[in-house]
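pls read this protein.

:::
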Amino acid sequence: MLDPRDEASMRHWAEKLAVTPGLLREAVAQVGADPQRVGAWLLRRRSDDHAVRRRR
């Protein structure tokens, strides 16, 4: 589990998932501390970001 109160844990997971700690905190706030759910949320967000860029 991700522990948003543990800075070392958040840095570890942010690096592992290739995101900023701020984005990781946003993901945890949205879906909870389960790494699989966080990863899925981040993937959806990335695909949404890419869709917006393609439409421009």
Q: What stands out?
A: The mean pLDDT is 87.
